[in-house]
Amino acid sequence: MKVAVAGCCHGALDKMYETLELLQRRHNVRPDLLLCCGDFQAVRNEADLRCMAVPAKYRDMQTFYRYYSGEKKAPVLTVFIGGNHEASNHLQELPYGGWVAPNIYYLGYAGVVRFRGVRIGGISGIFKSHDYRKGHFECPPYNQQTIRSAYHVRNIEVFKLKQLKRPIDIFMSHDWPRSIYHYGNKKQLLKMKSFFRQEVESNTLGSPAASELLQHLKPTYWFSAHLHVKFAAFMQHESNSKEELPKATKFLALDKCLPHRDFLQIIDVEHDPNAGDSLEYDAEWIAVLKATNSLVNVTQSSWNMPEKNGLHAKWDYSVTEEAIKEVLEELNHDLKIPCNFTLTAACYDPSKPQKNMEPVHTINPQTTEFCAQFGLTDINDRIQQAKEEGSGRGECEEEEEEEMDSTGSPEEPSEYNTDNSGLSSFNPDEIMLDEEGGDEDLSTCSVDPSPDHPPEFSTSFSDIRIMPDSMAVSSDDATDSNNEELEKSSGSKQVEEKSPTERSLKRIGADENGNSGVKKIKRRNQAIYASYAAEDEDKTD
């Protein structure tokens, strides 16, 4: 089957789907599935915009709300993960995954699903070591710290994914696995993005957690985005035993969704011709969720996952074939994910803007149903209970915030020796937030949606590149000539209402004198925003 893969969508769903339609008209190629590697921006209304960690000038309503309301429907099944520029309050409603709109499915904090027999996994967010060992404690309305930490990867999600034993066909992460650049055309990468050089040479670019998963899962394909540059690599894995056949991963990072950008990739993936056309649960993943349910943590206390070090009675949470069989029996061998999308927030109305709409903490019926079916903890319900009981962050929220440093995250020891999400260098193609200080007030700045004047589309998009059958790239700089040949040999065309379950929570983030802690944008970030604004002007010309 044909799978389309997109990088950072940034809410431009109309552009993305129009590009697929253009591909079909020009080349008679119709993808069966679309994957998006984060920064999807499922923004339903003005309150969602307030929960997106970007400066106010980049808070654009874009076009997702039209798919959420039912005005439009995605023409192809779309599966996506979260990035670091998301409506975090919306995605937080679906920690185990779910439908954000008809035919558009979010994988959750981490997840695995199946489509036509193809096993697809992913992990949302980006890596930051100071939040990695915490629980998912954040909830809207967010403050200056939690609006960012909400999208930081947690060790429990990595731990769950590492319990998988069965092969993964496709895996997605937003930030790149650390070290992957050593397996592709590194010279060409640094030519396009010279500001990555220091981190590439020190091997600190990318996520160490994603690298750990890459080495453990060894998927056939791994797709990422985040750095707004296209990059291919080929990683040969070592066998764990003499009996195990060697495995290799074809890695591809995608550019962002903009005119004149090669932001879509089409690949052919072997599938089960006898499988149905519905998105399905993965039985092993459900069994892992059940096995690790006792490890769910909704506090900001740092803790380590169980390991074989003499401190834990149990450290192996991988599941047996019997446990997988039990899941299948529970579902009567019907793994189809129910189409139970439900509106949980009012949809944006261009004729009636509500710039002062405040976000609320919502319990999504999809999550409630999923947890009830499989006996899992509803993370949002647990957070709500902790607040009502005055435990966790609860009534002590403001006092705890005052004790924290400017990042909102006490410096805890980490199993990784760096705190690098892959963008500490100046990257003019990325809307970057200063993790060490503070940008403009992210919780109270004005909202200025402008969905009715999108940039011209039609023929301004570059062609879509069809991935070649082979991405044979060896390691390090010896790959330079190989990767150039890879591009030449492809022989492919380039085309370019609120829910009754909503519960309002106490607003947080101001100090005892009522100050919001607004800080000026640092000069380094001013340069980045100015560069991005110039690019935006180019789009509308």
UniProtKB/TrEMBL annotation:
Q: Which GO terms describe its molecular function?
A: metal ion binding; RNA lariat debranching enzyme activity
- Do you know which Pfam families this protein is assigned to? DBR1 (PF05011), Metallophos (PF00149)
Q: Where is the composition biased (Basic and acidic residues)?
A: 386-395, 485-510
Q: Which GO terms describe its cellular component?
A: nucleus
UniProt subcellular location? Nucleus
Required co-factor(s) are: Zn(2+); Mn(2+); Fe(2+)
The highest taxon in the source lineage is Eukaryota
Keyword Iron assigned to the entry: answer is yes
Keywords for this entry?
A: Hydrolase, Iron, Manganese, Metal-binding, mRNA processing, Nucleus, Zinc
Write out the ranges of the annotated region (Disordered): 386-519
Q: What is this protein called?
A: DBR1 enzyme
What organism does this protein naturally occur in?
Tychaedon coryphoeus
What gene is this protein translated from? Dbr1
